[in-house]
Amino acid sequence: MKAYPTQEELKEYFRYEPDTGKLFWIKKSADKVVVGNEAGCYTMDKSRPSYITVGFNGELYWAHRLIWIMENGKLPEEGLVIDHKNKIRNDNRLVNLREASRYQNAQNVSLLNTNTTGFRGVSKTTNGKYRAYIYHKKLYCLGTYSDIDDAITARNTKEAELFGDFACTGSLSITQSNE
């Protein structure tokens, strides 16, 4: 595992704005650094902005991990990751970041671009009805419904039961993104 800077070292070089989720340089760490400028740049994921990376001490780091260390003193324990609640990978406001297991993080993902209904776990059948389903260690078939809203309600109810705070109920934009 890559060594990360300490909280003290990060606070010596960066200022973090919790309301915007942005890091700013307060001390030069390299020739190209301009004190006062925002630190980091977007990585690209399928032609859209993704995570923000920051070059520091000859290494590249994800900004959300540096922010987590600055605010919490350390990274999450082994086996845990930092999840972006709203699935927007470059939204590094502290209120949007939370510890999650890899499994919980995998639940908080955007729709696949093959999704045709706009809702996770709801598909249209060949007879024009809507099938609701969810995977959690096994496949739960939640029924077939004439009305898409009934299928969505069944899926959302079961997802909230299974995943609690990590449930992604409701419509999800296919263009949103996550950690």
Task: Report on the architecture of this protein.
The protein folds into two domains: 7-106, Homing Intron 3 (I-Ppo) Encoded Endonuclease, Chain A (Alpha-Beta Complex); 111-166, GCC-box Binding Domain, CATH 3.30.730. 22% of the residues lie in helices and 29% in strands. The protein contains four helices and ten strands; from the N terminus they run H-E-E-E-E-E-H-E-E-H-E-E-E-H. A hairpin with a 3-residue loop joins strand 9 and strand 10 (139-145). Helix 1 (7-13) crosses helix 2. The longest helix has 16 residues, at 148-163. It starts with 6 loop residues before the first helix and ends in a 16-residue tail after the last helix.
Observed structural traits:
179 residues; Homing Intron 3 (I-Ppo) Encoded Endonuclease, Chain A; GCC-box Binding Domain; 4 helices; elongated; disordered C terminus
